[in-house]
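[SOLVED] Need 3D model of a two-part complex

Original post:
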Amino acid sequence: MIKENENLERIAKEIMRPVGLSKNFILWMSFLGVILAASLVAYAIQLQNGLTVTGMRDYVSWGMYIANFVFFVATSLVGMLITSVLGLTGISWIKPIGRIAEIIAVAFAAVAGLVIVSDMGRPDRLINVFMYGRIQSPIIWDVTVVITYLTLSTLLYFLPLIPDLAIAKTRMDHCPVWLQKLYEILSVKWGHTTEQYKIMLKSVRILMVVIVPTAFAIHTVTSWLFASTLRVGWDSTIFGPYFLTGAFVAGSAAVVIAMYVFRSSYKLEKYITAFHFDKMGKLLVLTMLVYLYFNINEYLVPAYKMKAADAKHLHELFVGSHAFLFWSVQLCGLIIPIILLIFKPFRKPVPMLILSIVILIGAWFKRLIIVVPTMEEPFLPKQHVPHEFMVYTPTVIESMITIGTIVMAIMIISILSKLFPVIPIWEMAEEAENESEHKLNE
Amino acid sequence: MLKRYFAAITILATLSQAKAEEWVVPADKAKKVSPFAFTPESKKAGEALYKANCMSCHGMPGKNNAIPLVPPPPDLAGTVAQSLEDGEFFYKITEGRGPMPSFKNSLSANDIWNIISYLRSFNDKYVQEVARKITREGITEGNIQILFKLIKENKQLQAEVMNTTAEGKKPIEGAAVKLFAKRYFGNLPIDEERETDASGMVAFDFPKDLPGDSTGMVHLSAKLVDEDAFGEVKSDTVFAIGAPTCKPALNEQRAMWNVVQKAPLWILFTYTIGVLTIWGIIFYILLQIRKIYILGKNKEILGE
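Solution:
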């Protein structure tokens, strides 16, 4: 229960200051809009000519799009990690960044669905999945669980936002009228009553619990799209946890980047402090160590046995045509950041930003390394086909569409963070209240 | 000991190698020619047959894309294959050798000639020689038919070969008849090749345990062996002569790979329970938001 006092006044003012449409924001969105428009043109070309405009052919029928899909699902899982796993264990430093994690979850889960559509040559047949889908197929589980996770994440973003909307709606003279109206509607007549708080907090707790199995399901199912097929490099029993732990690495890196951007462009240094970066740095080290462990498992066991097909696959990865990408990803995306982040100076905001960008890019290419080399080694004789069937080379159009999906996610994040407070005002006020009470008691 | 073993293997390998290199067609068979002239229609029919029966191994004619078997299936539009006589072609396709299957029982002579017609269309230099009409003594032009008769008691199948001409029906004597039962893949020869007696009759002994469909029905097909003399004479029929087999359809039971109506129960159960639980909770949360709204509205009314 928050009290109307100077603490709340000050916090609300500081957090609400960047909210609304600024010139810079419109410029930024137009910039993103231009890139999006270009990628939509690329998509129109793909719709017209079919998937032959991509680098995918008979053997490599999953390429950049599927890797991109896995990346999106992976990154979205961080919402669950931070708000639920850390939140339910009572870790309080996540309070100012929980909403950022949730924004990333919503944006990436929403676009993940679209990324899958980009991989369809005939998206008009999507309806058939719902009409004739077989529930024995991991594809159906994936569709179900992505939609469910998106809904849960949206609710988990929205519910704790309600008190803030109510606090903010009286303090937004600098905002356009339609935004004020939107706040009025979305704040669902919140009156800061004890009863309303009780309902909200209980609902949030329920959501925090049910989102854990859902998030595990979403990425485990994504991994099963691979692991349930008999293919070199995918035919693995630990693919679920392998994907899940990888997801936490990508998501945590994305949160750090967002933290940095919001902190400096919205002047929120008081709320997102060096302390938070330090904590996130430690979290990154933990998630990366677990992921490294799974990586070692995933490559060492087949490499020890060296079954004929595995041997060929691993050869391509370790010293063959994919070696450069493979080692870049493992070193820059995992091993070097782990070593650096163990040292405190690297957990300061700027080095954290740089390392997180490298980790996130590494995470994207890691998905490509999981998808493509396996596709190039089917258990079929490859013969009498053109070179482009044997080796996958993404096209410009494919890359443009992929960039478009990333831009879309950034746009959703930008809009949510610009139109609504990125830091929970009521939680911060509560915190400040507790602190001053603490001081009084001493 | 081991040395001798290897020596034996080497000799055997060399011998089989020699065999793989030469495939000699008996001279009389090599002289055989098609009973009809190749036309665009025969070529077209042959192309369809080729694609269904041969392309999986030999690849597209002229494209040199056969699958790598040992010995390799040659490109049948290539110079080596095209230097074969029509009769050699016919013989090799009917008899087969090693990995090259025999098509004696699954393709008719007409079918095989159609395929040859198709393959010859890749050869500009080819000039066809057509068989002179061969007629057997005592047989005048007419409509030859094979009529079936089932003798249930001793599981014997009789066939009567009759020639209907302007002068009436006449039995054909001394014609060799072959009987086949249709199976999933190709035709299964039943009993031996038999010759008709003076009344045009042949009798085949039928095995007692040949599987039929669920009611014991077997598709049968009889043909005259001497296609040169009689042309393609064939007759099909269905008799309840086999042993009834009631194998359940493969897709009858619930299975992971079956249609959704036949999904395994555990997966139907797990999926449904999972979806209902989580979406039930989502629905509950939406109701809670409504409750917050109603509480706020009541407070507003009271406050005013």
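Edit: Chain B has nine helices and eight strands.
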